[in-house]
Amino acid sequence: MNKTAKYKIVIFDFDGTIADTAECIVETAKATLVRLGLPMRTDEEIRYVIGLPLEGCFEAMVPDADEDTINRCCEVYRELFFSYQEKTIRLFPEVKETLKSIHEAGIIIAIATSRGSKSLGELCVMLGLDEYVQMRMTTDLVVEKKPAPEMVNKILENYNLTPSEALVVGDTIFDIEMGQRAFCDTCGVTYGNQTRQQLKEKRPTFIIDRFGELSNLL
Description:
Blueprint: E1 9-12, E2 19-20, H1 22-35, H2 43-49, H3 54-61, H4 67-88, E3 90-91, H5 95-104, E4 108-112, H6 117-126, E5 135-137, H7 150-159, E6 166-170, H8 173-181, E7 185-189, H9 196-200, E8 206-208
Parallel strand pairs: 1-4, 1-6, 4-5, 6-7, 7-8
Antiparallel strand pairs: 2-3
Helix pairs in contact: 1-4, 3-4
């Protein structure tokens, strides 16, 4: 960690950036499609939409579905998710020690996620993140969802910070676009749900392969 931090706040995506939730999401999505008798999607197709609000994920996976079907998909998904989460969700390597280092350097840690408040809150407790994460911005707290910049803007407003003082970190193009639309520097991580090439097409400020590499950027 640099002695003089370049950024005053780091705003993290959750799924695919902090926590490895892909298996849980993929299996829950598949179980939802089966229960509702909808066309199955491949693991790759499901992983690609991770990061969007849940409604957006199912709109992409079931493009011909009407609003009632999408709403039912979301209901069933939320019902099923918790039966998968404890046995499948883990932190990525180097996450906890790096967050500890960032926190000790006096840099604010926030999460901006397409999850709801209840889900994120339970996962932060389960994974032992509460002592490091100072603000959680979830999809139920904003009008405009990812990749709109509202989540980032609300976090910056809360701390009276400017975009130049923030770094937005995520594993998908939706995270990068969100940060860019808020005029922040961005960092893509390659170990999550989208590839280096997909991230490069959005031209983030940085791309890293390990969570621990963040320490060199701050």
